[in-house]
Amino acid sequence: MNNIRRFWQWQHRITALTKMVVILATYLLSTGCQFTSSVATTGAIQTTVPTTTTPVATPSEVPTQNDPSLTKIALIQADQATRTAGDHWPTITAIPIPTLEPAITPVPGFSGDCAGGDRKYISGGCWSDHRGSDYLFVTSQALQTDPTQSWLQVYTATQDLHDLGPRQTYAVPGSPGLLYMSYVDWPRMVLTTQSQNTPNPQFVFNLVTRMWETAGLCPIVPLTVQADAVTGLQTRAVISSSLSGTASDRVGWLTWAGDFSDTVLAHSLVLPGDSETYRNPDNPTDHTLAAGKWVQGRLPVLGGPATTALTDLRTSYVSVVVPVWDQASGIGARLRYHVSDFVWISFKTYNTANPPLLEVRYWGRATCPSSP
């Protein structure tokens, strides 16, 4: 059995060597070299190549390759006849190498690209920004099978997005469940839970130190929602209201310190807000906004810098905190609201018609600054 195996191994080697010699001879003939060679293999026919130089024919006398009477050697000689003395090697056409398509430039801010999660994880949002020479990406995730196991995943990428850095994971302290991104006030990212019945605390993550921090002031903006509009409301539900500046509106504008200018309102709509400037209408020395106190109302916004600031909040997909009112008195510049709670919302649409129409999305109760 071993002898038979060796026989076939040598047979394959001789056959391969014969093919290599034939290919080499054909190549040399095609480049103008002429010689006499005999190639003999087991069962192969010997072929002798004449050494005489074939006269160069004129172009009109060159046989065509479509002539069936020509042998392979004659075809090669016919090809040589078309060459002139001093011809160079044929020009080799380089195979074009396709260029890489440009990478899609990430849009800074919050994105819904990861909103669906996958079979293993659920997502609370993703965010990206251009920092220095790199992109920074952050996603909030939790296990499908155990949502209390949640974390932030942070990683960087070069500008062409071809060199991704390592994905670093930071567990959420206290196992509160999946966190949803609210807004970023660099370098701090504010996130919150979305419980239906209990207040949702905020969590703060420092994107520079990569550490969780103690939550500070809530991002409260000068807008208020009627208590009846959120009672029993499911998270993600939409609240729609006209803004006529009366107590019949489900949503109304506020002023923290009694200043009715659109410039001051626009400044208050820039996160994290300036609710620390609040002044109690019943006690001007009281600057602590809390449930059980009154807040000054104001006329609706019809344009200008305040509308621009509101548009920025809406297109940035951020979540903010607003007071909930259960009592209202007065009208226009004399309108006042009694605060009973605080809730998380995001802005959906805003129409500056007269009266304006505002739609907000409800994300649950807030724990700040003080909820019963």
Number of domain units: 3
- Order of helix and strand elements from N to C terminus: HHEEEEEEEEEEHEEHEHEEE
Mean pLDDT: 79
Query: Structural class per helix/strand content?
Result: alpha+beta
Q: Estimate the global geometry from the Cα principal axes.
A: elongated
**What share of the residues does DSSP label as strand, in percent?**
25-35%
Q: Mind summarizing the main beta sheet? A: 5 strands, antiparallel
Please compute the radius of gyration using only Cα atoms: 40 Å
Structure report:
The chain is an alpha+beta fold and 372 residues long. It folds into three domains: 2-81, no CATH class; 109-213, no CATH class; 223-365, no CATH class. The protein contains five helices and 16 strands. It has helices at 2-30, 72-81, 227-230, 262-268, 305-315; strands spanning 109-111, 121-131, 134-143, 150-158, 168-171, 180-185, 188-192, 202-206, 211-213, 223-226, 238-242, 251-255, 294-297, 320-329, 336-351, 357-365. The strands form three sheets. A five-stranded antiparallel β-sheet has the order 1-2-3-4-5, with no helix packed on it. A five-stranded mixed beta barrel has the order 10-12-13-15-14. It is elongated and about 110 Å long.
Essential attributes:
single chain, 372 residues, alpha+beta, five-stranded antiparallel beta sheet, five-stranded mixed barrel, 16% helix, elongated
Set down the secondary structure blueprint:
Elements: H1 2-30, H2 72-81, E1 109-111, E2 121-131, E3 134-143, E4 150-158, E5 168-171, E6 180-185, E7 188-192, E8 202-206, E9 211-213, E10 223-226, H3 227-230, E11 238-242, E12 251-255, H4 262-268, E13 294-297, H5 305-315, E14 320-329, E15 336-351, E16 357-365
Parallel strand pairs: 10-14
Antiparallel strand pairs: 1-2, 2-3, 3-4, 4-5, 6-7, 7-8, 8-9, 10-12, 11-16, 12-13, 13-15, 14-15, 15-16
